[in-house]
Amino acid sequence: MTIKELATALNMSTTTVSRVLTGQEKKYRISEKTAERVRAMATTHHFAPNQIARNLRLQKTNTIGLIIPDISNPFFANLARTVELELRKRNKMVLLCDTKDETTLEEESLSLLLGRKVDGLLVAPVGKKWKHLVQNTAVPMVLIDRYFEGKDIPFVATDNYYGAYQATSFLIDRGHHNIACIQGIRGTSPNENRILGYQKAMHDYKETAKHIQLVGNDYSIENGYQSTKELLSLPETPTAIFALNNQIALGAMKAIKEIGLKIPNDISLIAFDEQPYFELLSPSLTAIKQPLEAIGRTAVSMLFEVLEGKNVTNAILKPMFIERDSVTKNPSP
Amino acid sequence: MTIKELATALNMSTTTVSRVLTGQEKKYRISEKTAERVRAMATTHHFAPNQIARNLRLQKTNTIGLIIPDISNPFFANLARTVELELRKRNKMVLLCDTKDETTLEEESLSLLLGRKVDGLLVAPVGKKWKHLVQNTAVPMVLIDRYFEGKDIPFVATDNYYGAYQATSFLIDRGHHNIACIQGIRGTSPNENRILGYQKAMHDYKETAKHIQLVGNDYSIENGYQSTKELLSLPETPTAIFALNNQIALGAMKAIKEIGLKIPNDISLIAFDEQPYFELLSPSLTAIKQPLEAIGRTAVSMLFEVLEGKNVTNAILKPMFIERDSVTKNPSP
DNA sequence: TATAATTGCACAATCGATTGTGCAATTTAC
DNA sequence: GTAAATTGCACAATCGATTGTGCAATTATA
């Protein structure tokens, strides 16, 4: 059923029908009697306007593109959920793209979404390249989680530096000197800022902290696993590992278990990212919880401000340190 | 940049430009020289056709609606990922809707997606109501995970009966008589089939199995937690709990830990659904792994068959039982 | 009663692509 | 050299909505 058919059935012009159905009957002086007839007919026929046609005419799709590196990572899955629900409240739908942390796929996703004339973009970029992102000046965009310093694209992220500093200091306070850090994707903002926080803490406590050790290069279970195996085969093994996301932590635990070491006695562990099961592990896992819901909400409201032509300021939200049982007080070596 | 502007710049008709850019230059006898000029101009101007206009003209959006009860549940997040990547290969994009396991939101999502003229629908329904789903006869649909018996909507699901039967038999074999089952959403197909598998096993081994006990009514951590507390405060507590999804299992573990009992000595646990961290728990958690990727792939290819007008047969895929350490051999009572 | 103001609605253009058909210009056939 | 066939491209309609403007019919004003 199209508006034309509806108009024919009512013996009116499509103009009148459209104006009633878009609530403009007052503005265009459609009589209440006519308006009522239109509404009645529309409901009995279950008429719903063709959104494609509207989009074309109105030059607006009420669609937001959401680009995510890995929707199977619970961090992003939760983010996606908040974003979707928040956008729905504002009458937008989301076109989802998973980039598998590949810049190529991200570039492709971007141009596909632009071709579909999304009204806005919410992007958790891979974070290694940014040129394709700044090329788009046409549609408003807000970055989530990973961003680019000085590139003038608004973003919302966790205070990664703060979180990492806090976690590392905690380890040093507990007597750890040799703390290894397993990185995510190098060169991406969260990773670099976490590294900076880690390094700063190591430096601030340099009388006690031994040396800086960075390994790994991916936000994956596999990287956590391999890097941990590597670390634990070193002549001088670290007494604590700082895993820069939940997947790395998972891989690390797997390796530690396989090697037969015990957390926290043989080795301590802290994860950046919180997961519901962390408290159930034995021992429970000390973690830095990112304010996921706040990030999602903020990203959406920032995007709307940009859509409304307002200026926005980037948001950096504080994470929360959750102390549990995966860190010893007295590391052996 | 529109095709019209491009045509003006080339001093040609939009017809010719369109035909070249859609690869129909042969069919409509556009000279190679002209075609080459068009292509060159298109690339220098970075021309990309307005998909909205194409969609309207072609009556096809190359968009699939994906309706999911809870994208933050790793089961569905993984599913969504497979589906998204698989659809992208076939040049479709996905409009995502999260229904929070609420039928109302599902109905709303459905009509929004239909209004947007999606070419097809992949729905993991809440599963309690189906009328709104069968009302849609216009666009092809495939159900995932939860389905409706005899309602003639094609689906792909795990063999829940089989999985539950296997898990329950395993518990009985290990000497458990009093096995409680914490349900997900009652009345939904996976839940009912798992229950049937559980009951059948209990019945088949009735000399040894004691009685059937069903509690709970949600696929949530909270339900797992509350139901477990309830079970463990019974005069005659079960020796094993069968949790009907990963979230329930998580809640159950939380409750068990809080009460101070030990798995598996005090109580055994099996989860329907596998998660990467299950093997890292102490003890590691015995689980039934659903063939997630296969489900996603199958759903997509089934949808395409429907789109191509073929007949499809429902797919019921076998899960895999993964024995770990969360079940004792000799339950005490 | 004649004129002005208001009411109530429809015509037709528009958004940006695609496509059936028609018509010169060129080439081929005889 | 003329008719027929082929080549190369453009006109205009179409998809389904929205909207500036215009024009009767009705009501108000003087």
Quick structural gist:
The structure is a homodimer of 333-residue chains. Chain A has 333 residues and is of the alpha/beta class. The first copy, chain A, contains twelve helices and twelve strands.
Number of strands of chain A: 12
* Main β-sheet description of chain A: 6 strands, parallel
Task: Determine Rg of chain A (CA atoms, Å).
Answer: 26 Å
Structural class of chain A: alpha/beta
Overall morphology of chain A:
elongated
What is the residue-mean pLDDT of chain A, rounded to a whole number?
Answer: 95
The helix/strand series of chain A, from N terminus to C terminus, equals HHHHEHEHEHEEHEHEHEHEEHEE
The quaternary state of the protein chains shown equals homodimer
Largest interface, C-beta within 8 A: A-B, 47 and 47 residues
Number of continuous helical runs of chain A: 12
Distance between the termini of chain A: 77 Å
Poorly predicted segments of chain A: none
The side-by-side strand order for the widest beta sheet of chain A comes to 2-1-3-4-5-11
Helix content of chain A: 40-55%
Report on this model:
Two copies of one chain form a homodimer. Chain A has 333 residues and is α/β, with parallel strands linked by helices. Chain A has twelve helices and twelve strands. The longest helix of chain A has 16 residues, at 74-89. The first copy, chain A, is elongated. The interface between A and B is large, with 47 and 47 residues. The structure holds a DNA duplex (30 and 30 nucleotides).
